[in-house]
Fold this sequence. Notes:
heterodimer, A: disordered C terminus, B: alpha/beta, disordered N terminus
Amino acid sequence: MIRTFAILLRQYYLVRGSASRVIPMFAWVVVDILLWGFITRYLNAVAGPRLDFVPVLLGAAVLWDFFTRVMHGVTMTFFEDVWSRNFLNLFASPLSLSEYLAGLVLSSVVTSLVGLVAMLIVAVVLFGFSIVSYGVTVIAFLLLLFLFGIALGIVGSAIVLRLGPAAEWFVWPIPALVSPFAGVFYPVSTLPTWMQYVATVLPPSYVFEGLRAIVSGAPWSPSTLWIGAALAIVDVLLACWFFGWVYRYAVRTGLIARYSAETVS
Amino acid sequence: MIRDTFSRVSLQRLQGQAPRHGSGQAVLAVSHLRKAYGAVQAVDDVSFEIGPREIVGLLGPNGAGKTTTINMVLGVLEPSAGTVRIEGIDLASQRAQALRRTNFAAVYAPLPGNLTVEQNLRVFGLIYGVRHLESRINAVLSQYELERFRRVKCGVLSSGEQTRVSLAKAMINAPHLLLLDEPTASLDPATARDLRMRIRDFTTSEGGGVLWTSHNMYEVEEVCDRVLFLSRGRILLEGNPKTLPEEHGKRTLEELFITIAREPLSLDGAALIP
Lengths: 265, 274
């Protein structure tokens, strides 16, 4: 536990002294909420009172940005070790892989919560939208997205560990690749059949279907969230297994010991 | 004499024994260590021990297998075969317990430059489970004359200062086994001499064992109790650095090193090594 705390402390030291690390924690999500807030306000103006776009689109944007922050929280903490070539110092120590991954997750918890609070404040103050007004279900939504964000963050980190620092450009667009299938801003039924099949194995699709149902007052069974939660837990376990597999490969081949862009790309 | 030395070492290896040195439990026992990359044997059946208060030099030309051996002892490279035991604890099965007793410094593993000296020491002190961490940080800062750099980011320090920070980190947990890969490579002669004295003090006062690689034969002769010459992944020679050159008909350790690097088989008895 103390070694996990050491990873969190390291991240705290880095963030504390660096505006370039603090600002991205909330700046981009605030810009995103502003953008979606004004879009929804415009859509409400042209569409009339038939449908309130604010909770549907802005709510989705808040949740999706939270998910993205969680994933990037994990990968950013991992990238700090990539950029400072710190793997040899870390992995030649008593630090275990599970302690290290727990440190990445804890760092992500903190940074994603900062982003979430910033988003909620902007959404309430500027657009009068409070996602927490939907009650305890929102916590379930956030938890499920958090788990899936952790899973993708760990997978992204494993990809960079295996392929080298240059592969970080594979990691940044992962949320964008997932979003069309997850039905963030439209019902999954809008998708072609094959994409709907993909959506059924993506935990976020259950969240956004649920959000739309709650907002529009359509019938929706909260129990479907359990499917999403089960999938998210499986995804986290698979992600940890995948990272462990890549790590063992790196130890077997000497990748950890000579990790740099030049040696692995 | 030469043939006797080779024969003794070779016979022990052929019998599957790691040569024993000193008294008490070895802080490091490496047994039949191998690392193959495809058809290339980077380390080939290496066995040795390091006793308490002993500084062992691991010498050899570039590509001889020194860093590969150190990486396997540090647990960041999986051996193809063989075992590593640190104070009797098997590294493969009890990694955390074994590595808690170990630490290292290497020129190719600087500490994160975006953290201050003190922050780095605190983070790694926590990782190594150091008790009374703040007083230990103060002690190593003082020991390596780093107090004035306490709040300076490591990335802006000179290479020599960064080396001292790496050594301070290597000492943060008062390791029983210390691995130093060319620790004085970027230090000026005066600082390098101070460092050698500190490492020597560490072995005498705290009873730790040290595995030291260097290409500076003067330094090796001064600081090491025993040296292992690696060539093509194998231990070719082993002995006291002060007497080994003469035993092999060479005037200096450097002359012996050059011979081993260029023509290892020209040494009398070398063919006996398995």
